[in-house]
Design goal:
Elements: H1 9-41, E1 51-53, E2 60-62, H2 67-96, E3 101-102, E4 108-109, H3 123-161, H4 168-195, H5 205-211, H6 213-246
Antiparallel strand pairs: 1-2, 3-4
Helix pairs in contact: 1-2, 2-3, 3-4, 3-6, 4-6, 5-6
């Protein structure tokens, strides 16, 4: 068995990047929880307690608070920290057992080990459990972060323009694309689970993507939906910002 100190610098860099990301996500998660707790303690969490008369309609519109954003953001950051913590454990475990180091769910960095010892008999099963857990956490994090960004943007627009926001079309459209991220992500994960196997023959999620065509197609669709949804939400955020600045 090898150790991280004996591994190539590329593997050490992969491990360090995973650890740093996990630590930063944990810090942000702690800050988000602290901010939410402070707001609840100060009674600033209920939007209908703060109202402002709209300059457009003359109606009294409740100001939006960050509660809806925090409902999505806090679990998203927790899942992100969990995913990268597990990823760090995967790389460390793979290095100890002289296995290719995982960079993503679908790519592994293969290198020539300096050790001649064989991997432990239980390494396949343990890595399988870790990769499937990490993938599930990453899917949930992606879904929740997309929702958090959209909600925060619409709430800022609503408070800035003193109008009801988001509009019906925005609600329907963003609900569809956020749901699509979750559905295709879970579908690829569940399909991979059916192809995983058991015991010492259990496959990692990356191996399931490589070996099973249905899992691979569902995962590709999931990644495409994530790219499309992120672009769509980013465009809406930019449009809201430009419109808010102009008014």
């Amino acid at each position: 068995m090898s150790s991280l100190t004996d591994a190539p610098s590329t593997v050490q860099a992969i491990f360090a990047l995973d650890v740093v990301t996990a630590v930063l996500a944990t810090v942000v998660f702690s800050l988000a929880v602290a901010i939410l707790a402070t707001r609840i303690k100060n009674g600033q969490i209920r939007s209908f307690e703060r109202k402002r008369k709209s300059s457009h309609t003359g109606a009294v519109t409740p100001l939006k608070t960050t509660l809806s954003t925090h409902i999505f953001l806090i679990p998203a950051i927790f899942c992100l920290a969990l995913a990268y913590a597990i990823q760090s454990a995967i790389v460390a475990y793979q290095t100890q057992n002289d296995l290719p180091a995982s960079v993503t769910s679908t790519f592994e960095y293969d290198y020539e080990s300096s050790s001649s010892s064989a991997p432990s008999d239980s390494s396949g099963q343990r890595i399988s459990v870790l990769t499937f857990t990490k993938t599930l956490a990453a899917i949930l994090s992606t879904t929740l972060l997309t929702g958090a960004v959209w909600l925060h943007s619409t709430n800022l627009t609503s408070n800035g323009e003193q109008t009801a926001s988001p509009k019906t079309f925005s609600k329907i459209w963003n609900t569809i694309i956020i749901s699509a991220i979750f559905i295709f992500g879970i579908a690829s994960w569940a399909q991979g689970l059916t192809e995983r196997g058991s015991g010492q023959e259990a496959k990692s999620f990356g191996e399931c993507i490589t070996d099973d065509r249905v899992t691979r197609i569902l995962y590709i669709v999931f990644r495409c939906v994530v790219i499309f949804s992120s672009t769509s939400v980013s465009i809406e955020v930019l449009r809201n910002y430009i419109h808010l600045k102009a008014n």
